[in-house]
Amino acid sequence: MLWNGDRRYVDAQVVNTDLAAIIFTSGTTGVSKGVMLSHRNLMLDAILVQSMFEAHPKDICFSVLPMHHCYECTATFLTCVYSGATVAFSRGLKYIRKDILEVKPTILLAVPAIIENFHNKIRRSVADKLSEKQMRAFEIIDREASRFKVKLPKKVTRDIEAVFGGRLHTLISGGAPIDGAILDSFCNIGFNAIQGYGLSECSPIVALNPAKRKYMKNASAGHVMPFTECKILDADSNGIGEICFRGPQVMMGYYKDPENTAAVLDEEGWFHTGDVGYLDRDNYVFITGRKKNVIIASNGKNVFPEELESYLLGLPLVDECMVWGGELDPNSPWNGIHATVRLNKEALEKALGPEYTPEQAEALIEAQVDKINDDLPRFKKIAHVIVREREFDKTTSMKIRRFVEDNKRA
Question: Which of 19, 141, 286, 319 falls between 20 and 30 A from 310, CA-CA?
Answer without folding.
Answer: 141
